[in-house]
Structures are given as structure tokens and as C-alpha cells.
Amino acid sequence: MTKLVDIQDLTFGYSTEPVLEGINLTISRNDFIGMIGPNGGGKSTLIRIILGLLQPWSGKVLLTPSINIGYLPQYHSFDSRFPISVEEVVLSGLLKTGKLTSRIKSTERRKAAEVLHKVGMEPFAKRSIGDLSGGQMQRVFIGRALISNPDLLILDEPATYVDNRFEQELYQLMETINETTAILLVSHDVGQILSSIKTIACVNRRLHYHPNNKITEEILESYNCPIDLITHGHVPHRVLHNHPQ
Amino acid sequence: MTGFLSYTFIQNALLASLLGSITAGIIGTYVVSRRMVFITGGITHASFGGLGLGFLLGINPLIGAALFGLMSGLGVEYLSKYQKIREDSVIAMLWSLGMALGIIFISLAPGYAPNLMSYLFGNILSVSSADLQVMAGLMLLVLALFIPFFRLIQYVTFDEEFARTSRIPVSLFKYLLAGMVALTAVLYIRVAGIILVLSLLTIPQNTALLLSNNLRKIMIMAIIFGFAGSLAGLILSYYLNIPSGASIIFSLTIIYLLVSVIKSITNRQQKKV
């Protein structure tokens, strides 16, 4: 198994108190990790460290050389009135390839159309990003994370803003993507996708890794990882057994 | 009309309009789309301090202004990295400090500063061929950055944090661009003056924004609208004998209003169909 990411004994904080402590995590090809944990538990912070946006206090973050990470942030820092089309937003996911010519190549256009089709936004390609609804924007940003065929896809709360139907489509899409790409999915509501994820990481200052997707009351209580196990409608799901008493 | 064109100062003014429209068209589109208009206003006014220092030391005031402009432009860009700082307050302080320093330096300078008015309001008719060379140099620099790196600049400006996850030297580009914004603003003080230069960087760009969401087209249209407004302003200035800076801004605004009226009429017609 190729290790894409290897985090060793990582500690990080914003001021004096550590937000993350003694974190160990490896991400390998074919992984599909669901990262859960309470608000303020450090999930997004850990992701920002993996992406190199924050530097750890101590410990190591080893990335496989020239790794390509596709990223969907939880909060977007862009200006919605910036003059840019949906197609170009998706194409900006190719920034990391470092090979952008001044003009858009026809191969890039085809690639963008393909990705927009996957997220159901093809008819909106020429529209301004600011004209879209929150859920539509979210789909476009998922497209931006996918277009470079990343080795690792990091999605921070991808279901924010999107409607229930697209949420289900999204989880199916991720299962297909997972055949070739490792996925790290952050959610406060992992109950929704329990059937697709393979392993679980609970983050609440410390990280507890579960090498399967069996989530029990015990896990939730002992590691203080409260999540929502309630869902609605016809959702593919799996009821997990209780641990022997 | 041919008599009008035979004067060297008119020829210089026309050339300055062309160079200025290209440089300000591109840089202004960056300024407007990144919402840096207030920062740019701050830089321009802060450069008044350098202008005053130039008068006091007896060197070319524009060199002093360029130094102050660059320092404040890069300074604000540097400070904006730290979110605990209220960027708009810092800009306002810089803005007034620069003006205050300028007034102090000028009052300390021996004698009277004769063409102070032309620095505040600009005079395109006083552009020298040395000025033109510097303007051409800056235009080439801007083109050398924007032509090869157009999409990179566009994507980095759209979502800086996402760009930072892509191993792009985001800060390098931001500082380079901040430097070019400062130099453009200061250089075109000659043409439009400290108080009016902001209009060259905002009015043609906003006119173009009425018509497109494509950054490349916006830049090209901003150049065309900028040049048209400068020409019209120059002609108005010559025949009505009014200050050129003011007449250029007036013309740019008329073009903006015309385009927005035409756009709302065509929009209404499209809705009826």
C-alpha cells in the first residue's frame, strides 16, 4: 500500500492551548476515511495542516512526493461578485498542475465539461459564479476539486448547502471516485454515508482511528465524538451491531 | 483638427492617453475585481508625502511619490496577511498621514511650490517625453506579467486560499501586483492628479463590467473605454479651455452612463420577447 500522507505525533495550536495533540494518521491509496468529531474538535485544522496552509508546532506531516490533493473547503473565501464563469472556476482546479497557458486549451474545456456533467452543472458553464445558488456553487467547487484527477480528495462538509437528492448522488459519485482516489471526508453527520466509508477517524483534540466503519455508542461516548446518527427517507444505510457487553 | 495635432504637447498627451489606457485598463481591472479601490486611493494619497519630500530635497517629486506609493502599497499588502488588523482603518491612517507629511514638507521647502495644483488635479498637456518613456516602461512590465500569467493571476485573485493549496507562489504574485498598482497610480498622477487618478483605474473597468463576466474581455474593453474617454476629454479640454484631468473623468463617466442606459434598454427589450 502506498502511503500518500503520513502524520506522526503532530501537535498544533493557534495561541497557547493545543487544538490538536499527538495526532498519528496515515492515508493510503484506496482509503475512504470518514473524519468525524464535534465542532471545534480540530477537523478542519488538521486538514489545513495536511494542505500546508498551517505549520504544525511539532511532529511531522510526510506527503508522497508531488502528491495531487483535490480540496473542497468548508467555508469559501472567494468574492461571489468576482467576474468569472462557472467553467473557469472549475478550471482553476488545474492551478496546481503549474502548466496553465494564457488561453484555455480545448482539452481543458472538454475536461471541464466532463466534470461539470458529473456534478450536474453542465448547462451553467458560461454563467457567472455569483448568479448561482449556494447548493449550485457547492457542486461547482466539488467539480474544481475533481478536475485535476487528484491522488487524494479532501472534502470538508461537502453536503453543506446541497439538497438531499444531490447529496445521495454525491455519495454514489464518491464511491466511483474511490476506485482510483483516496478520499478523506469530513462530516459532523457521518451516519449518512456510513455505507461508503471504509474507516473512521474521530478528531477531538486527539485522533482515534477505527480500522472499520462500525460505529458504536461506545466509540461515540468514550472518545467524545458525538455525531448525528439520524437520517431521513430512502437512504442507503447499514445498521451496525452492538459491541458484546 | 490638424492644427490641434501639430503641437508636440498634444501628441505627447495622445500617446500618454494610449499608454495610460492600456496600463490602467489592465491594472484597474485587477484593482476593481479584487476590491482594492480603497487601498489604491490610500496609496495615491500617501504618495503626496513623497511628492512633498521631493520638493523639499529638490529632486523629481514623482520619484519621491513612487517611493512612498510603493512602500504603502507593499505595506498594506503585508499587513493584510494578519487578519487582526483592521485593513480599512490602516488605509485611512496611511491616507491622511501621507497627505499631512506632504503638507509639512512643502511648507518647509524654500519658496513656493509652483505646480502643486497640477499634482493634485493633473495635467496631461504637461507630459514630457521623459515621462512617456517611463510610462512605456511600466506598460511593458505590466504586459510582461499579465500576458504569460493571465489565468494564474485570475485564479489566484478569485480564491487566494484555494490557490495557496496548489503550490503557487501566491504571495510573490500579490506583492508584484501591489507594486504595479502603486507605480501605476503614482505615474498617472501626472495625467489625472492625486485626487482624480482613481477614476482611470475604476470607471472604464466598471463600464466593461456592465457588459461581460470574462476578465480578459473586461480588460480589453476597459482599455478601449479608457482611451475613448481620454480622447474625448482631451478634445473638450482643448476647445473649452478647461483642466484636462477633470474633462477626462467627466468623459469617462458619460461613457459609463451611456453604456448602462443602452444596457438597461436592451435588457428590457429582451424581456419583452
Question: How does the SSE layout of this entry go?
Answer:
The complex is a heterodimer of chains A (245) and B (273).
Chain A: E1 3-13, E2 18-28, E3 32-36, H1 43-50, E4 58-63, E5 69-72, H2 86-91, H3 106-118, H4 134-146, E6 152-156, H5 164-177, E7 182-186, E8 199-204, E9 206-210, H6 217-222
Parallel strand pairs in A: 3-7, 3-8, 5-6, 6-7
Antiparallel strand pairs in A: 1-2, 1-4, 8-9
Chain B: H1 2-5, H2 8-33, H3 37-57, H4 61-79, H5 87-108, H6 116-121, H7 129-158, H8 160-164, H9 170-187, H10 189-209, H11 215-240, H12 244-272
Helix pairs in contact in B: 2-7, 2-9, 2-10, 2-11, 3-4, 3-5, 3-9, 3-10, 4-5, 4-9, 7-9, 10-11, 10-12, 11-12
Describe this structure in words.
The complex is a heterodimer of chains A (about 240) and B (about 270). Chain A is of the alpha/beta class and about 240 residues long. Chain A has helices at about 45-50, 85-90, 105-120, 135-145, 165-175, 215-220; strands spanning about 5-15, 20-30, 30-35, 60-65, 70, 150-155, 180-185, 200-205, 205-210. Chain B is globular and about 65 Å long. Chain B contains 12 helices and no strands. In chain B, helix 2 packs parallel to helix 7, helix 2 (about 10-35) packs antiparallel against helix 11 and helix 3 packs parallel to helix 5. Chain B has helices spanning about 1-5, 10-35, 35-55, 60-80, 85-110, 115-120, 130-160, 160-165, 170-185, 190-210, 215-240, 245-270. The interface of A and B includes residues 69, 71, 96 and 144 of A.
Mean pLDDT of chain A: 84
Shape descriptor of chain B reads globular
Largest sheet data of chain A: 6 strands, mixed
Structural class of chain B: mainly alpha
Number of helices of chain A: 6
Over all CA atoms, what is the radius of gyration of chain A? 18 Å
Number of helices of chain B: 12
Q: N-to-C SSE series of chain B?
A: HHHHHHHHHHHH
**C-alpha termini separation of chain A:** 35 Å
What's the helical proportion of residues of chain B?
over 70%
The proportion of strand residues of chain A reads 15-25%
Counting DSSP E segments of at least 2 residues, the number of strands of chain A comes to 9
Order of strands, widest sheet of chain A: 5-6-7-3-8-9
Strand content of chain B: under 5%
What's the total count of β strands of chain B? 0
What low-confidence regions of chain B span 5 or more consecutive residues with pLDDT below 50?
A: none
Largest sheet of chain B: none
Taking all Cα atoms into account, the compactness measure Rg of chain B is 19 Å
Give the averaged pLDDT of chain B, no decimals.
Answer: 90
**Uncertain runs of chain A with pLDDT below 50, 5 residues or more?**
230-241
Helical/strand content category of chain A = alpha/beta
